[in-house]
Automatic annotation (TrEMBL):
This is Small ribosomal subunit protein uS13m. Belongs to the universal ribosomal protein uS13 family. Keywords: Ribonucleoprotein, Ribosomal protein. PANTHER family: 30S RIBOSOMAL PROTEIN S13/40S RIBOSOMAL PROTEIN S18, SMALL RIBOSOMAL SUBUNIT PROTEIN US13M. Residues 124-148, 194-216, 256-279 are annotated as: Disordered. GO terms for biological process: translation. The keyword Ribonucleoprotein applies. Coiled coil: none annotated. The keyword Ribosomal protein applies. Residues 194-203 have a biased composition (Low complexity). The lineage of its organism: Eukaryota, Fungi, Dikarya, Basidiomycota, Agaricomycotina.
Length: 279
């Protein structure tokens, strides 16, 4: 018999379903908790190790103050590998062991090569991720070269077309067309502070985007359960009741408020069909 936060979890039930007994823990949150503490989907409550039970209880007692899985994501949000039980600069010991994500082109080693250590597997994945990154850089450089060649070819064709058009013109018309083309090019090449025809042109700068606070990389950091969640719900209901909203009154009376058709047509007609509304 396992008790977590004073809640009795059935021994014969799967851990991912038994955790939903806790108020505020749904199926998605339960899956995240099982993944956090390396609990298998088919593991039952009676099969949990003492370390897993203690870790679950300590985490659920205060999710906000619990340390996130160190090394699960890098500063840019990408995966990175690290060695388990290795202390970082803050002296915090890593609990979980995270591996980098394999790319779509990853080819696993043949089975006849036998078992390999975790460190060799990490090194192999790191090399594969490094090669994929280098390949992406090469592809990006190739696309840039193709774009430059395309733009150069397009500009060359435009010049040839312009020269071909100018060869057909003579005298004053040729001078006018050349002046119009020069003015047209200068209009599109002007930048902030440049002068065209005696006037200083300015371009609109991009609006400054407000800096948003950095989001937590741990999806379980803002988990609210049991007493804290019940208190939050009570405060919300009290606020709705205080401002006199329809939802707050029904909450206070214990009546259903989750989207049912609770207002009759007579009540709506009484509110809408008034003389002062049409006078």
């Amino acid at each position: 018999m396992v008790h977590i936060l004073g809640i009795n979890l059935p021994d014969n039930q799967l851990a991912r379903f038994a955790l939903t007994t806790i108020y505020g823990v749904g199926h998605s949150t339960s899956h995240r908790l099982c993944a956090r503490f390396q609990i298998h989907d088919t593991c039952r409550i009676r099969d949990l190790s003492p370390f897993q039970v203690t870790a679950l209880a300590s985490f659920l007692s205060s999710p906000q103050s619990a340390f996130p899985p160190r090394g699960a994501t890098s500063a840019k949000g990408g995966p990175r590998a690290f060695v388990a039980n290795k202390k970082d600069d803050l002296g915090v010991t890593d609990i979980l062991k995270t591996y980098p994500l394999a790319s779509l082109a990853f080819k696993p080693r043949p089975l006849n090569r036998g078992w390999t250590s975790d460190r060799e597997l990490e090194r192999e994945w790191e090399n594969e991720v490094k090669e994929a990154k280098e390949q992406r850089e090469r592809d990006r450089a190739a696309r840039e070269r193709e774009r430059e060649e395309y733009l150069a070819e397009k500009e060359k064709k435009a010049k040839e077309k312009e020269e071909k058009m100018l060869t057909r013109l003579r005298g004053r018309m040729r001078t006018k067309v050349i002046a119009a083309l020069a003015k047209h090019k200068a209009t599109f090449k002007t930048r902030t502070g440049t002068t065209v025809n005696g006037r200083t042109t300015t371009t609109k700068s991009k609006p400054v985007q407000p800096k948003l606070p950095p989001k937590s990389l741990d999806p379980l950091a803002n988990l609210t359960i049991e007493t804290a969640l019940r208190r939050l719900v009570r405060d919300n209901i009290a606020h709705q009741r205080m401002i006199g909203s329809y939802v707050g009154r029904r909450h206070a009376m214990g009546m259903p408020v989750r989207g049912q058709n609770t207002r009759s047509n007579a009540k709506t007609a009484k509110k809408m069909n008034r003389v002062d509304r049409w006078g």
